[in-house]
Amino acid sequence: MSSAAHATPNFWVWLHQSVTRFVWLWGDAADFTLRMFRWLLTRRPCRGTILPNFHQIGVGSVPVIATTGLFIGMVLAVQSYAEFTRFPGMKSWLGAAINASVIRELGPVLAATMLAGRVGSALAAELGTMRITEQIDALWCLGVNPIHYLVVPRFLACAVLIPLLTVVADFMGVLGGAFISTQYFGMESFEYWRVSQEKIGLWDIFCGLMKSTVFGAAIAIISCHRGFNSSGGAEGVGRAATDAFVLSFVAILVLDFFLGLLFNGVSAMLWPRG
């Protein structure tokens, strides 16, 4: 009886603390985002802070993204071929199915996931280390706004380069799927590309690029926010890097769902069927 009486208050205390922490986290993240956009729109960041971030996020990620995209297409071809050949007349649609999956969904989502692990964790760890070693406080003392100096260039790099890296992933995925389908499974190359060209349009490419732009912005905001507000020494930096990846991954999936609904609705309005 006594243990049950103590358990109930403890549960409510835990619930209150969890809700309070959740509300504070999202409120602080919203305030952080608004301040970042205010500096982005009112003052241009200096070139010296942009180019290193563009190089780190863009050039350094190309090998990982290219490899990921290549094997996405190859795996899709292997799995899809076994299913499409079970139904008469469906084999010719293999290229369209692979390329649509890569361009609209798997390319943007998996490329963003890889970059959340590589770039997001690095951003959180870098800013977290600067917070722990009081470098961010030193910028305040020098009259430099750390959000404008540190966060805005990283946000621009992610928002601009992640869509470009997604193009690399899409290109490699399309090539990988075509190679396995035509060279390994023996499909006719002309028929493969003809059906793909008929079924894949500029709207599909636009949807994939818009998704990757939103994913890149989300990765930058979440990672910079976690690193900017880290505490607790080396353990806190590690926790910020882990939180940055986990929260970015969840955000990618949630945003992909809602963006998919949005684009499907817009597509139905622009090109109604029947």
Largest sheet: none
The proportion of residues forming helix, as a percent range, comes to: over 70%
What's the mean pLDDT score?
88
Q: What's the β-strand tally?
A: 0
Task: Give, in order, the helices and strands.
Answer: HHHHHHHHH
Number of domains: 1
Distance between the termini: 67 Å
Helix tally equals 9
Strand fraction = under 5%
What structural category arises from helix and sheet content? Answer: mainly alpha
Low-confidence stretches: none
Rg (C-alpha, Å)? 23 Å
Q: Identify the overall geometry.
A: elongated
Structural commentary:
The protein is mostly helical. It has one domain. The chain is 86% helix and 0% strand. The chain is built from nine helices and no strands. The chain has helices at residues 2-42, 47-58, 62-84, 94-132, 135-141, 146-184, 189-199, 202-228, 233-270. α1 packs across α6 and α4 (94-132) packs across α7 (189-199). The longest helix is centred in the first third of the chain and has 41 residues, at 2-42. The relative contact order is 0.15. The mean pLDDT is 88.
